[in-house]
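Crash report, auto-generated. Payload:
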Amino acid sequence: MCSLSREKIIKTTTDIDSLRSEIRDKSVRVIDVRREDDYKQSHIPNAVNLPLANLLSDDSPERVLKLINTMGIDDETHVVVYDDTFGALASRVAWTLEYLGHNDVSLLETTFSKWKSLGLENDRNIPDMRSSNHSIHLRPEIMATSEYLEIAKDKPEVILIDNRERLNYLEQHIPGAISLPYRTLATPEKILRPKEEMKRLLDNRGISGNSEIITYCGSVGTLSGLAYYALKSVGLPNVKLYVKSFKEWKGLEKPVAKQEDANYWDLSAE
Amino acid sequence: MTISEVKHSHRDSSKPKINWARFEESEDFANTVKLYRQGKYDEDSFRRYRLQHGAYGTRMTNDYAMVRIKIPAGEIYPNQLEKIAQLSEQFSIGSAHVSTRENIQLHWVILEDVSEILRGLAEVGLTSREACGNSVRNVMCSPLSGVCPDEQFDSTPYALATARFFLRNPMAQNLPRKFKFNFTCCEHHGMVRMVDVGLIPQIRDLNGNIQKGFRVFLGGGLGNKSYVGYQLEEFTPEEDLLYTSIAVVRIFDRLGDRKNMARNRMRYLVNDMGWEKFQNLVLKERAIVRATQSVVTRLDVDHTPNEIKNPVRISDESGNPISDGYSRWLKNNTLKQKQSQYYSVFLTLESGDVTSSQLTSLATIVREFSSEGHARTGFVQNIALRYVHEDDLPRLYSKLLAIGLAKSGALTMAAAVGCSGTTSCNLALTNSHRLAKEIQRKFLELKLDQDDDLRDSTIKISGCPNSCAQHGIATIGFFGGGGRVGREMFPNYQMSLGGRSDGETMLGATCHRIPAKRVIPVILKIIELFKKNKKPNDTLQDWIHRIVNGKEDSEIKSVLDMRKVLDPLTIPPTKEEDPDFYSDYGSDSSYHTKTGKGECAA
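Recovered output after restart:
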């Protein structure tokens, strides 16, 4: 790896002030992952649009490479991703870049709505993009497949985390998974809790140390993508995203576990 | 903050007056859970510790807890509602549950997350300390105290002072069993005879000398075996309130049964000993307490009046078309206060459940509409907003409508109470929680909330014989069990009629066993029979009371007659005819009874 010599500390999230100065310095590529219509209405200055649905329509490495080259992202570009969905969609896009081998990617600490509500700058301009030439260094160590998970989930040193809401987890989950709903990860202001709080919470749950951790959610790895970054934010070194998540697992008719003999759904006022 | 600081500082009426919390308890809880998981804390000690901190066990699992948040006197502030909403979303199921004792419960919380909830609660001055276990439980106060036209004075400050005195008080940390105080406004709105200590505020005129005090009722309670409380003396002056409370707690602590878990509530002690003997003991003990307590031991009653101010409003003239539901809601959910132009508004919840987003919106609504700046939890799984100006009612209605909290019926028979049942409780045999929701939906669909004849009747459903839903004092009460046809089981309820908790408190008379899926038809049948046989100005409650007391002269003269009329509805169909009969609400598989270990008495 040629860039090892100038390795820098990459933060999980970028705070608002840093992003604003990076935008002024033109030292960042900002990706807005909301729908195209929303992006066109207004976005953070100089942000480019990559709707998550667009990415997911084909997220093969070749396609993703093409996309990021179109956005002018090369191996050294500092990338910040944001959404309006408490960071979950942004996480999925950021993780995809990481998987391709782009390391310098982080999440905006807040959502676009919050950004706007703070009265911060936004516009409708679509920035010029010069295409770039990114390399591919796939990082399979941050992805879990169903085959991988099937074996890994029974190993004592592996922690499998379900990031869906509690009731969904109680009803069915991958055997051995523990429940950590995505809402647990955030504060009302920020997409992720402050590091100390996050660490305390995860420590209480025994999520710490050098364990291999695999996260999953309902279908495409958004909620669990956020959890992936939550775990990274406290420095946990070995985290994988089961990107195709419970939808694939069910579709493959793999075993599921359930909290039996209780009518917990009837406690919901939804 | 000490009480004197509170009294002298400028009070923001929408900020909590009392901090019930201690931050260190959160960390201690987290550490204790870790030690327990490492096997360094034995099962029994841990359970006692957990319950002392308000974390109750959950059905069929050791991994989850229910956190019971105490709301002393039911007073809950907007920032507290917001925090509970947030905690529910983060650590529970996205809904919270308002109990029959003014607590708010978060269910299906991972045991390791309980400490985070305690921390969050402490940030807004709330605690779950001594919400479970053998301690003084949440001190209740009528949600109408302070606004009830029939009350002699507001007992809220006394309820709060009592809660403060006993919370974390060494004398109440290891009682033989749980211990409950209920304060009320008047005879009609409280449940003073169905609790260890029940108190009705009274004013006495002794030769022109006006004196505040209480009528104190002791030794009542609902449970597997229920008793009606006895009045201690004609009048207990306010300065004797604390001495009396201490005396009763001390006697219970000393003489209560610590061995037999099923019979260790104070009501059994009173019953075994006989009232007169118990009464004498209390009076003697009180004399000793009075003589030996230090002068600094007194109830710190904060008499600062609540600030009542019309909140500053963002004017909203966007035209609120008043929907047809408004007059129905006005009639069935609001009460005129003794303060002119002000109303108390009760929210209709289904079995006490409310979503976290509703709680968040409700916080804003409380700030905007309640001139006292906070809400009150009620006795029947509901929430009240008080001091709403009459001119604001239509606007409040449309705001509540927008968040799904404007359903009619809170003050009517439609507001059926259901304990948590098999949704989370280890002891439950049936899904009483869902059944209560189904009954409410049916009542609203049939517009029975509009029927004045049914207004003062109640329906309460417990999922087992332990009376968490207080079925014994319901006009029509139910508790769950299993029925059997050959090898097949079906969910079944024991129905009682004519219970009440007012001045003529009595327990309902056992009438019949009703299969779960026949409960709604049976209730409707009883209403139909009532309509057919009622006298002018009769209410359903009057009619049922006459039947229960053998004073009715129409076709149904007794509980036995009622039983006979209902018989055809209770006959089980075969499984082929009606498979649904054999599964409980919320389940599509065949019913079987299954319970875990209860820990009420742990």
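Post-recovery validation: Chain B touches chain A at residues 30, 33-34, 58-61, 86, 89-95, 97, 107-108, 110, 112-113, 115-116, 349-350, 353-355, 358, 420-424, 431, 433-434, 437, 584-587, 594 (CB under 8 Å).
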